[in-house]
Fold these 2 entries.
Entry 1:
Amino acid sequence: MVTGLAAEAAQIRAAARRLGASPPPIACATGPEPAAALCRRLIAEGAEAIVSFGVCGGLDPALRPGDLVLAEAACTAPDGPGAFSPVPPDPMPLDPDLRTHLATALARAGVAVHGGTVAGCTRPVATVFDKRTLAAATGAVIVDMESYGVARAAQAVGMPVAVLRAVLDPARQSVPRAALAAATPDGQIHLGAMIAALARRPWEVAAMI
């Protein structure tokens, strides 16, 4: 399992404890290149399949916070002002057998999942405008910063890979800058940085809540 936040990795470990099972090997880093490097490390250590797990931003307005997406493909888009044009290359299909295995297990547990493409960026896609633009350019339903890098690294060596992500911020909601300031490259949340950012942008308090 590869996650972008330490809290996501902690959820996997906690779930394994509740089941009385050993957690799978987990690696955590924010961003496509660090996540890809950790994916390659897990493969070198004997992983037989890779899952990119965690939260994501919604691009499809039909998706609500908490909805799970078990992606069918991953794509990437250039970053920067006006970044989401021209349209990036065709999406990279993810392993259909692994996806079916996970979908079946989730269905048995009574958990509904959505399909679609996950878009990968090197920076947070935080505004409603950027989300709408990225969705139009790629056809993706969600966006995160790790899954495309993980998928590329796994598929380069023929490793089955899946993406299972939960929508955190929906398509019609922007993410406050103070929230973005709190994330560190190793997936931790720096509360001091968040408080400092809110002190500079006090009008974001309501959005943070």
Entry 2:
Amino acid sequence: MSLTKTLSKIQSPASIDYLNIGLMAVSAFFAYLLPFELFLFSYAFLGPLHYLTELSWLEKKNFFVKSKKEAWLFVFLAIAAALGSIVPETNLNQFIGHAMLAGFLFAVLMLFVEKFIYKVLAVAFIIFIMWGNKLNMFPDAWFIIFGILLPTVVHVFLFTGAFILHGALKSRSVSGMLSLAVFVLCALLFLFYQPALFYGNVSTTVRETYTSFQLVNIAIYKFFVDAQAAIDATNFYTGTVFVSIMRFIAFAYTYHYLNWFSKTSVIKWNQISKQRMAAIIALWLVSVGLFLFDYKIGLYSLLTLSLIHVFCEFPLNHLTFIGIFKEVKSMVVRK
């Protein structure tokens, strides 16, 4: 068998699906074993490389919109949201929910509305209508959805699941549907299977490092479990429900990154100039170095880049859901 045929077999859609099933299993196993540590590792080492390579790929794809120039609005909104997260004592933090909602809605308009001014005016009008406490304050549900969950677990879990579903529907493959089933099963396991024996005490260093991310866990707990609950600091790292939430977060982030890199042969984000690849590797090494030097410095230094990649992916997210609807519709019509 020739090398070309061998490579094509290895990189076939079915083989990639099975590879991803393996990556899901590995991510889930380590999420059970060391949830806080796994998340911190994945976020620092895999996260920056994901942001850089995906932004490079999205730029080559024109961000999946008609006018690439309009993506600069995403940069502005990401900077505003990042500043609000880093400097919470200012009024900027009240803009985080509005910034995320504005970017989410603007991405829809980028796909269907021609003139830039109409898009901006439409988003501005919607934000004006929703201005006030509904998107400003934690733990209001709207703030939790748009200000906290949308750029975090919705991005890494729900949108990743949508990509898997869309691919499975397009290919009509058994392996694609199986990978989706395993993805959902892994997430449900954290809800229904909550053993304590796989998890020991969280070190003081890990607790101090994870402080910057705690609001995500608290938001999930208040939104899905008990909105009125007072969160105890000790229970946060040892309580059964909180550890299960952390396991889910660690799994979602780790697999989100691994899923991106596993599909290199399909997405072909690596087909770029040597200069661009060298720049990406250099920036990634600097990013990892910042996290190793001081995790908070790394987090704050990369936060804007992380949010830019979330915003710039919105048009693709919307197109994916449109694609899912079309595939389901075609299946129904055929029947």
